[in-house]
Amino acid sequence: MTAMDTARGRARVAEPGEGIGLDELALATRNHGLPLEALRYDVTPPGLHYVLTHFDIPAVDPASWTLEVTGAVERPLRLTLADLQRRAPATGRVLLECAGNGRARLEPRPVSQPWLLEAVGSAEWGGTALAPLLQEARLSADAVDIVFTGADHGVERGVEQDYARGMPVAEALRPETLLAWSMNGSPLPPQHGAPLRLVVPGWYGMAQVKWLTRIEVLEEPFTGYQNATAYRLATEPGEPGEPVSRIRPRALLSPPGFPDFMTRERFLAAGPVQLSGRAWSGRAPVTRVEVSTDGGRTWADAVLSPVDPAHPWAWRAWTCTWTAEPGPAELLVRATDATGGTQPVEQEWNRQGMANTLVQRVPVTVFPPGD
Amino acid sequence: MTAMDTARGRARVAEPGEGIGLDELALATRNHGLPLEALRYDVTPPGLHYVLTHFDIPAVDPASWTLEVTGAVERPLRLTLADLQRRAPATGRVLLECAGNGRARLEPRPVSQPWLLEAVGSAEWGGTALAPLLQEARLSADAVDIVFTGADHGVERGVEQDYARGMPVAEALRPETLLAWSMNGSPLPPQHGAPLRLVVPGWYGMAQVKWLTRIEVLEEPFTGYQNATAYRLATEPGEPGEPVSRIRPRALLSPPGFPDFMTRERFLAAGPVQLSGRAWSGRAPVTRVEVSTDGGRTWADAVLSPVDPAHPWAWRAWTCTWTAEPGPAELLVRATDATGGTQPVEQEWNRQGMANTLVQRVPVTVFPPGD
User: How far is CA B107 from CA B9, B20, B272, B349, B357, in A?
Assistant: First the structure.
């Protein structure tokens, strides 16, 4: 399909000072972020959870839809939604984040979905565990990767494809990996993958395949576009780079005070201010959240909410009291997890703007009390 | 509050060729649009309806929240949500559209929320009619405007404010004007105005006040910011301009085929293609939808779905069969309503990019069948 060749090629990086293009804007208006004041909700209300759709939201008829389990298995399966819903139920409260979160803050800017910091959400996913289904299909002992394919179809950098991601067998067999048909107790909305999606706690969003139609077991590594080309950590053109996998630690602040409509600049009254937000990591528990109210010169420990054993894959709330003095201030927050990994204060750039956890900066103007 | 003065001033218009700025992007990532393939749903599923929040989504506690009816009335009222929910129920399926829809396509571009074309949605709003409540409060015979104030607070062009809009008494007293606490049969989500919002069928979104806390009856026209400064149709700086009111006619096409991730360019196979979409007007019934598949040189009538008497304020579906030949094509669609008003093929510019209904253009590449 030669007409598509015009779109072929490498990920583009914006020129210095180049404004956001209409192509990036078209993605920003299609794909939804979490307005940061919605960090206040433990479970993100319907419609405020981030959504990233590579192609179009497909129109899937749940009555005729089936899920195929195929490839290196002894017993291939084909299941309807009713078949799946007769299986043992399982649920999980899971923090999801797009691997491209924060991309539009990088300099130079990788040209793709231009997330600032809002590509996150917390949901209660309901369905059934994936592992028992794979065991029933009797995986080959030589199985390496499991490929999850969705009903969404399009072209990306010249490659026509159904969206498909491979995942190592060990990750797919984790007991918390779900086939989900509900979100926050309601049927999965179209944009979140109805009628069935994958939920792999701890991994960035590219692994959470929506509109799932096929699970294929491979005895060699999957080399499809979304694994081999997209979602790599590379700095030089042509460099293969490491694959993106687990979510790196991040904390976000719910911006205090009230905003200016256009600039989103924040205003608040002097005095004690309760700063609050969320922190998470997909690799290990968050062990520390630090807040700076002086642009990063000094940092103070925030108070982390206790780990909830019922929700090990959820984000955690944090709070920190700040005595705000009149004048301008810049607030920063950073998380550290049990691996010792933390967030950089200076950017760690890569060509596709993946898994970048540059700290959030929230400039505020404090006005005298009673002003 | 002198610090806010930095944000004071007139709406800005972008320089020729100026890319989208980070301020516009921050609005685009906060405010949600309808991905155009979701035009397929008669009633927009949760989370796909457009949302425009001027400031932050406020945290309103429904248990302590009350609605005040005050001003030029004989019997001021204060009602809880339970009080309202004991009143006669009323529902309406209503098309809503942001007055700024299409703004980012204008040249030069008014700098504000940079909608392309996706600031629309269709919902079933449930609540109670406004008119009987106003009648119980006994409006002054001299009442002119009714002011609806929300709990959302911020600064806009230097003016600190709770979001507030005035509406002529006659519009507020229309039987279809609702105080709504549900959307598509579920409690109102936070971003759509929980616990209570106004729904005024036929008007652009600025009239649909969310997080409603106060209804004040005035015996003179309301001169607050959102009526007197924002939401005006002016071309020169300083010109007051006409107020924005009813939704002008518009048709949108659900882009056919499949997309390129980054460019959103569309690809489809040659042969008969069923084009489809929606059309609406807030002033009068839509009487005609026309489609051009040759960039606007020729137009053909689409088939409009019958008017549904149960849903006079809903959008209408339209379809049109196109025999696509291999090669590039540009698809356009335009609506006409019973006032005779239609959509311009060349832009009709105004400084704030309000109520602009420039026709949608969808470039597509048709590939030979079997390619």
Answer: 21, 12, 35, 8, 14
For residues B143 and B131, the answer to whether their CB atoms sit within 8 Å is: no
Tokens 């002011």 belong to residue: B147
Within 8 A of A259 by CB-CB distance, chain B residues are 55-56, 154-155
**How far away is chain B from the Cα of A54, in angstroms, using its nearest Cα?**
6
Task: Give the residue among B113, B149, B129, B151 at the shortest CA–CA distance from B29.
Answer: B113
Residues of B with Cβ-Cβ distance to A260 under 8 angstroms: 4, 7, 154-156
| Chain A, nearest residue to B104 by Cα | A22
CB hemisphere CA count around B133 (13 angstroms): 30
Q: Is B68 helix (H, G, I), strand (E, B) or coil?
A: strand
**CATH of B2-243 given 3.90.420.10, 1.25.40.10, 3.60.20.10, 3.30.43.10:** 3.90.420.10
Chain A hits for B61, Cβ within 8 Å: none
Instruction: Mutate one of B34, B56, B352, B367 to test the A interface: name it (highest A CB count within 10 A).
Output: B56
Does A55 sit within 8 Å of B40, measured CB to CB? Answer: no
pLDDT score for A10: 75
Which of B48, B111, B262, B268 is most worth mutating to test chain A (most A CB atoms within 10 A of its CB)? Answer: B262
What is the average per-residue pLDDT within A164-183? 98
Token pair 């996913």: residue: A125
Contact A158, A7 (CB under 8 A): yes
Neighbours of B169 (CB within 10 A): 16
Give tens-digit pLDDT for A200-250.
999 999 999 999 999 999 999 999 999 999 999 999 988 999 999 999 999
Enter the pTM of the model: 0.96
Residue type, B91: T
Predicted confidence (pLDDT) at residue A1 exceeds the cutoff of 60: no
Tell me which fold the domain A250-367 belongs to.
Immunoglobulin-like (2.60.40)
- pLDDT tens digits along A79-97: 999 999 999 999 999 999 9
Q: In the prediction, which pLDDT does B3 show? A: 42
Kindly list the domain boundaries of chain B, sorted by start residue: 2-243, 250-367
Tell whether ipTM is more than 0.90: yes
How far is Cα B296 from Cα B294, in angstroms, rounded to an integer?
6
Bridge partners, B180 (sequence order): B127, B197
Whole-number Å distance between alpha carbons of B180 and B197 = 5
Q: Output the pLDDT for position A46.
A: 85
pLDDT in tens, B307-336: 899 999 999 999 999 999 999 999 999 999
Buried b or exposed e, range B70-93, using 16+ CB within 10 angstroms: ebbbeeebebebeebeeeeebebb
On the question of pLDDT at A5 being above 60, the answer is no
The DSSP 8-state label assigned to residue A296 in this structure reads T
pLDDT digits (tens, 9 = 90+) for A257-299: 999 999 999 999 999 999 999 999 999 999 999 999 999 999 9
Mean pLDDT value across residues B18-30: 95
